[in-house]
Amino acid sequence: MKKPHVQAVIVPPTAVSGSFYKPFEKIEGFDEYWWHDVILADQRSQTHFVSMHVAGEEVIRAELTLRKNPPGTYPGWTGPGPFAAIEFFEVAERHRGKGLGTQAVFSVGTLFPGFRLHALSEEADGFWASLGWARYSHFEEPRNRPLYLSPTFTENS
Question: What average pLDDT does the structure give for the chain?
Answer without folding.
Answer: 81
